[in-house]
Amino acid sequence: MALSQIAAQGLVLLGCGKMGSAMLAGWLSEGLPASSVWVIEPHPSDWLRGTGVHLNQPLPDAPAIVLVAVKPQMMGDALPVLQALGNGETLFVSVAAGTAIATYEEVLGESTPIIRAMPNTPAAIGRGITALIGNTHAAEDHLSLAETLLAAVGQTVRLDHEGQMDAVTGVSGSGPAYVFHLIETLAAAGEAQGLPADLALQLARATVAGAGALAESAEESPAQLRVNVTSPNGTTQAALEVLMHEDEGFPNLLHRAVTAATERSKELSRG
Ligand SMILES: NC(=O)C1=CN([C@@H]2O[C@H](COP(=O)(O)OP(=O)(O)OC[C@H]3O[C@@H](n4cnc5c(N)ncnc54)[C@H](O)[C@@H]3O)[C@@H](O)[C@H]2O)C=CC1
Ligand SMILES: O=C(O)[C@@H]1CCC=N1
């Protein structure tokens, strides 16, 4: 099914905060007409008001997809509004972290096709990646419908089982924040070495963006790309000896960070 077919039946977005807006911005820029999108959002931003979507208006009877993008903690209040669309043709896709498929089935009915997805905010510029897993009522058609929608804002990957979702959340869902923090801290380190703040930020931002683009397009592995920068006994080697330190270096730090995010996702699922 193409984006135009989703447009014909309608798309409902429940919650349009940071992640909902990132995806909506991507869909609108890919040509999804604002007139085929219904958004339920108690605190709409000026940007959302300006998009021309149906905002807090009565919903269509059988939209192609309802996309749930409220915080896990708000789910109990938010989901019942959608109950009337359950057990029908409408596909539900939720991007909420740490909210198990069973939670949606309890409210929407067990025969509702439900897909749990984990996107990330680069979706706003069509560079996201979303992992997907469906319930037993999510047929191949439903998965490819969700992929059509999510592929409009980046890559998609299917998971083998729902248990993988916690680690996916720790790597790619939360991951952009780690990279933004890398930019912030690289710039701060440049400032500490005497660079003006705006120059340090420009250098850090361009370096992370350029290295990311190279890592994505190059045939060499990230490890080889790192070696290509590292002259024997040069400046990079001096830095990497700090970053690759067994206890205090990047590997241990990122391992702990991703473990913390994964464990938090599991905790949220337990309620
Ligand atoms: N921000 C991110 O990078 C990512 C977020 N997610 C998931 O997306 C979901 C939303 O996260 P954010 O956008 O970051 O949070 P957010 O707080 O920016 O957005 C949530 C939105 O839901 C609205 N809302 C609250 N109660 C509502 C209700 N009863 N009905 C409709 N809307 C309601 C809020 O006004 C708010 O605008 C979360 O479940 C999160 O786990 C998933 C992947 C990445
Ligand atoms: O921080 C969170 O809980 C959400 C899920 C992944 C990114 N943001």
Q: How does this model look, in words?
A:
Helices cover 50% and strands 13% of the residues. It is α/β, with parallel strands linked by helices and 271 residues long. The chain has 2 domains: 3-165, 3-Layer(aba) Sandwich (Rossmann fold); 175-270, ProC C-terminal domain-like fold (Orthogonal Bundle), CATH 1.10.3730.10. An 8-stranded mixed β-sheet has the order 3-2-1-4-5-6-7-8, with helices on both faces. α7 packs across α12 and α8 (175-192) crosses α9. The longest helix has 21 residues, at 197-217. The radius of gyration is 21 Å and the shape is elongated. The model has no long low-confidence stretch (mean pLDDT 95). Bound molecules: 1,4-dihydronicotinamide adenine dinucleotide (NAI) and (2S)-3,4-dihydro-2H-pyrrole-2-carboxylic acid. (2S)-3,4-dihydro-2H-pyrrole-2-carboxylic acid (A1CAB) binds next to α7.
